[in-house]
Amino acid sequence: MLSRLQAAREATRPVALITRLADGTQWLHPDDTAPAPLAEAADAAIRADRAAHLAQDDAEFFIQPHNPPLRLLVVGAVHVAQALAPMARQMGFAVTVIDPRRAFATEERFGNGITLVDEWPDDAMTQLKPDSRTAVVTLTHDPKLDDPALEVALKSPAFYVGALGSRRTHAKRLERLAEAGLTPADTARIAAPVGLSIGAVTAPEIALSVLAEIVARRRGASVADRP
Predict the structure, then answer these.
(1) How far, in Å, are 3, 24, 40, 68 from residue 34 at the CA level?
(2) Sign of the alpha-carbon torsion through 216, 66, 15, 162
(3) Among candidates 171, 223, 222, 177, which has minimal Cα distance to 197?
(4) How far apart are CA 172 and CA 153, in angstroms?
């Protein structure tokens, strides 16, 4: 079982270990076929990222989720990123800021605890391999940086992909991505204009709206329509 857990970790695949406390019988969800109530409870534990106890058929079970780390990949070391990165860290995300412009992606601007990558976004995104516990946000307004990153992100299982820009900017972005071979189903995953509609104006307010939308998407919460 330990080897199977390690394999799931290396594959960045969310799983849950279900243990019957009376005799130590175990299932690794979703790989093993556990009784339906246990499988449902395991799914809930994975979503909540929290261990759970369950009483079922006169037996007690302990369910321990083993999730990959939460990650936020930000393209563009801009003012919004400076506000977003520390907020996301407080929410438990490992934050990586990607920007080939080395004058922007500096420790002086972002402080400790933020991973800075000065490679081209598509190369960096390919190496970082967004998974189902990864959110991606592009913030540069520069198609040379944002578009290639979005192409990689939209082909990944990232649970959130957002892009800064107005509706007009996004319409042009969709045209470029279509020319690059992405389908309407692919590009429909992009949250744009990025962030919840809270009337945000300043960089910290925009960062707050983006992080709130990421949390809502992760938790499966319904949010108001975009303006």
Answers:
(1) 19, 14, 9, 22
(2) positive
(3) 223
(4) 18
| Phi/psi at 133 (5° precision) | -110, 20
More confident call, 220 vs 165? 165
Does the pLDDT value for residue 219 go beyond 90? no
% of the chain beyond a pLDDT of 70 = 98
For the entire predicted model, the pTM comes to 0.84
Concatenated DSSP letters of the chain: -HHHHHHHHHTT--EEEEEETTT--EEEETTS---HHHHHHHHHHHHHT--EEEEETTEEEEEEEEPPPPEEEEE--SHHHHHHHHHHHHTT-EEEEE-S-TTTS-HHHH-TT-EEE-S-HHHHHHHH---TTEEEEE----HHHHHHHHHHHHTS--SEEEE-S-HHHHHHHHHHHHHTT--HHHHTTEESS-S--S---SHHHHHHHHHHHHHHHHHT---PPP-
Give the bridge partners for 60, in sequence order: 55
- Tell me the CA distances in angstroms from 58 to 9, 42, 54, 61, 210, one per residue in order: 32, 18, 10, 10, 45
Angstrom distance (rounded) from CA 38 to CA 42? 6
Rg of the chain taking only CA atoms, in angstroms: 20
Distance CA 222, CA 78 (A): 29
The size of the chain, in residues, is 227
